[in-house]
Amino acid sequence: MKIFAVYSRLNFSKKPDWLDAFRNKYNYPHTYHVTLKQPTYIEEDEIVNVKNILAGIFNELKLPDHKIDIVFDKVVTDTPIMIVATQKGETGVLQSKIVSALGRYTNFVNPESKNWEEDFKPHITITDDLDSEKLEQAKLDFLIAQDIWIWRPPCFVLTKKILHHFVFVRLFEIQNLKRNA
Fold it and tell me: Rounded distance, CA 55 to CA 76, Å?
């Protein structure tokens, strides 16, 4: 058995100064990304087929400079703490194509992730797997970080303790994969 997933790395055009430090403090070391296909078990002999399906999707994409703009405009201070894009845009279209084309691959590593795939919400996880005490501290630190910085659109804006933010990123690493002969 093998595990595969489809991720898109993020490159920020504007990123809050505190974001990396916050993630580091709460030990979330993963590269900034959006998960387009949740981790799924497959047999080793299915790898070539999965690669060919993805190559077909990416070869047909008509994206200028192989980039997709996305705006993360909502914070979820639950567990995990995430920055969410309320408008899926082209990212949602791409995710839907990938999930549809790989529809027969449903042996999810985490069965709950099937729901995340069906109800796709592009997001950046900034904390994960925190016990309740650390989660409460992270929420407090998150609000304190917002009080220290003065944000103006298109970055973050703090109004009456309600956080409105607009973090612009681009999805990169959309590559033309070669079909296996």
Answer: 34
Tokens of 177: 């994969």
Please check whether residue 160 is in contact with residue 56, taking contact to mean a CB–CB distance below 8 angstroms.
Answer: no
Cβ neighbours, 10 Å, residue 178: 10
- State whether residue 51 is helix, strand or coil: helix
Across the chain, the runs of DSSP E, i.e. the strands, are: 2-12, 33-42, 68-72, 74-77, 81-84, 123-125, 156-159, 162-165, 167-171
Model-wide pTM > 0.85: no
Picking from 136, 111, 138, the residue whose alpha carbon sits closest to that of residue 25 is 138
Digit-coded pLDDT (tens) for 25-75: 887 778 888 899 999 999 989 999 998 998 888 888 776 666 788 888 787
**CB within 8 Å of 130: residues ≥ 6 apart:** 26, 79, 80, 138
C-beta of residue 98 within 8 angstroms of C-beta of residue 6: yes
- The per-residue pLDDT for range 114-162, each reduced to its tens digit, is 999 999 999 988 888 888 898 888 888 877 665 544 333 233 322 222 2
Check residue 116 and report its DSSP letter: H
Dihedrals phi, psi of 96, to nearest 5 degrees = -65, -40
H or E stretch including 25? Answer: helix 19-25
CA distance 171 to 85: 13
